[in-house]
Amino acid sequence: MDSEKLYRQYLPMSETAYYILLSLTNVRHGYGIIQFVEELTQGRIHLGPGTIYGSLSRMEKDRLIQAVAEEERRKLYLITASGKELLKLEIARITELYENAKKVEGSLYE
Prior knowledge:
By secondary structure, this protein is mainly α. The chain contains five helices and two strands; from the N terminus they run H-H-H-H-E-E-H.
């Protein structure tokens, strides 16, 4: 899939996609992703198995992640260079949102 189409499909990114890509900066299996995201977000986000495995399948097809091994019948995934590029774009977008909010923050509480 070409980059432009991929960007339109994934940006802005859902929290699910964001946290899956973020978690796959280290090798993890599906259940490991679920645990990592729940811990990272202090329980605010719980990814169900249907959500996680559907997303992993789509992201693997789109070459944002790749299966790198299998351990005890569990596929282990890692983010690809394309996935990293997309994640960096989303982080830049979120940073811009945050920086812009800080510029007007005072007026929010008046």
